[in-house]
Amino acid sequence: MYDAVFFKPQDINDLPQLPGVYKFHNSSGVIIYVGKAKNLKNRVTSYFNKSANHNRKTIRLVREIEKIEIAIVNSEFDALLLENSLIKELQPKYNILLKDDKSFPYLCITNEPFPRIISTRRRIARNGTYFGPYASVRAMNNVLELIRKLYTIRTCKLNLSDQNIKAGKFKVCLEYHIGNCKGPCEGLQKHAEYQNDIDQAAEILKGNLNIPKQHFKENMQKAAEQLNFEKAQSYKEKLELLEKFHSKSLVVNAKLTDIDVCSIISEDKYAFVNYMRIKNGSINVTKTIELKKKLDETDQELLLLALIELRKIYESNTNEILTNIDITNPPETFHFIKPQIGDKKKLVEMSLKNALFFKKEKLNQNESSKIKELRVLKQLQSDLRLKELPIKIECFDNSNMQGTNPTASMVHFKNGRPKKSEYRHYHVKTVIGPDDFASMTEIVGRRYKRLVEEQQELPNLIVIDGGKGQLSAAVKALNKLNLYGNIPIIGIAKRLEEIYFPEDPYPVHISKKSESLKLLQRLRDEAHRFAITFHRQIRSKNSFTSELEGIEGIGEKTIDQLLAHFKSVKKIKEASFEKLSTIIGNSKAEQIIKAFKQKKED
Questions:
Q1: How many other β-carbons are positioned within 10 Å of the β-carbon of residue 496?
Q2: Which residue in 318, 329, 326 sits closest to 277, CA to CA?
Q3: Structural domain boundaries enclosing 555
């Protein structure tokens, strides 16, 4: 835990010149950004410095700041760790979000009389000793396969207690007969011998290959001296398996040990960070991640943020870290080196190659996606006989429940993909009762009247969710604006996926397997989802508001704050006094809790 203190933006000169973490809250009490600082006053003040050359996103962030929460810590390194955990917990919209480690695979040596080695994604300390996490399932399986070739470790789930074995409860299975198990279930293998295999396997999982190598080498020589050449050959084959496995990940200099390597390649909007962990002369972890920049972060900030998370996931505590960039004023716990020559330089170059390859693959995927998008748009242009490629498509849908809270939505696709910043919600204003046709006329008219007045670019295609009736209503709106004939417009009926054109009595049927029809279906379904979601929010807000409006001292602004934070009446009722008071203050929180309690008693 840590002590938190709150400041208003106008009071930032009162901030302490100490290391810590700062959290920016907006007017609804939502945390929108978390950052760390060696000097809280200097760092936070820099956001409000008008002479600073901030980018647009930072300017937008500063405009939203209503309250600043700070937490003082002992050192910059503590601030870095706290920042990392808070970003993962709170996921503020202006922060880079890092993937949690819940989905990474581990190998576990179980806590049993005859332990098993199992793969798992859940780490429960009481169940055994865990190794990993591994960068991929394939890498984990390669290690597990090696261990099963070298040692006879059971795979069954039997409870091999001394009592059960002596009672003869179990019989050997096929694994025993094919030589993969020595039958501890029937007492055919002593516990000490089995445990020796487990200890050897544990050394491999730790990355210490020298101990099992020496074990096989000594046993091979001993068997050869006793003229037991078949057994000696078996040990030789196992030794060769270990050598082959080791050679795949051998570093240039086997004396290099307990080192982290972290490199970064940065572009305007994205950065790619590769992390490698070196132990006992071998690379036993390599992982590359992609980071999306949000506030024009520096390469040093991005690398430190990623490094803290990756070291936590892969449980590294080494001090020496090799990197490809200069790190100024690093946390005291870290010793960064930017090598210029030798084997350490080669390690950094290897890390950079991994990052470059990852970046190249991402770009290739994006390029393939663009080619596919263009193909689909050309197919849609052909199917609908359009004069222009439908780069920008807008789709309308409306929603009401028995005529209550009539609303509508418009979704915007660019290059065949949703552009959510252009999505629009509409309250139907001029229509009384459940009249979908009149509602469609209103919202289409409002949308394109505004675009014309603001001299904005019109779409290449308009799609209406519905059949001829809905389409005719939309055409009516375009006619009033003298836009009919300038923008292609169609309707898509859900039942048979029929495409309707204005003034054409017969629908067009596009092949059910056509990519162009799938694009139209995506548009229609997205518009419907967006409309329904908005309508539910309106109904929820109305019911929520009605329960709060009668509480003395609770006004519209307070209701909006609560709605923005808690989303539903159920969550507000379950909220504690502490949570409510942080959003709306102590007195109003007391009023709400008292009112809900009274209502429950009534």
A1: 8
A2: 318
A3: 550-601
